[in-house]
Amino acid sequence: MHRIPITRSGYDALKEKLKVLQQVERPKVIVALAEARSHGDLSENAEYESAKEKQSYIDAKIREIENKLANAEIIEIDKTKIDQGRIAFGAYVSIKDTNTASVVSYLIVGEDEADFKNGSISITSPLARELIGCRKGDVVEIQTAKSVKEYEIIEISYDKLDK
Predict the structure, then answer these.
(1) pLDDT tens readout for residues 41-96
(2) For residue 124, what is the domain's CATH number?
(3) SS3 sequence, the chain?
(4) In which domain, by residue range, is 29 found?
């Protein structure tokens, strides 16, 4: 499996999510299974079936997160060693739509920590792939479902990445 780029805070959040699944959610579902079993005939026991499904889901999520953590590559941004004038993983980028002049800003992060609504996009997203390597003042074209959008890069910063 390939290495998965992630920030330190993203890695820590995944570890916390795993901890909650293992130490809170899974024990709860085991109790629910035991209680449902105590009600007798399992063949027609909806509570038991529901608890079994939930246990399956939680176990799958635990395996998925364990796999992601095992393959994670924590990217530490050392501002003394990178070209801060170029966009790379961990960059906070502001871009202006050249047609509407509207400005949006994004933090480029790993897939598991991307949250478009909160201003972070995955390094593997089409927008981030276009922006990687660009400098302030560069113009990039992004193909959307409806048209081609043109954006000018107006700010690049590495100060907004959580450590």
Answers:
(1) 666 678 888 888 999 999 999 999 999 999 999 988 777 777 888 999 999 999 99
(2) 3.10.50.30
(3) CCCEEECHHHHHHHHHHHHHHHHHHHHHHHHHHHHHHCCCCHHHCHHHHHHHHHHHHHHHHHHHHHHHHHCEEECCCCCCCCCCCECCCCCEEEEEECCCCCEEEEEEECHHHCEHHHCEEECCCHHHHHHCCCECCCEEEEECCCCEEEEEEEEEECCCCCC
(4) 4-74
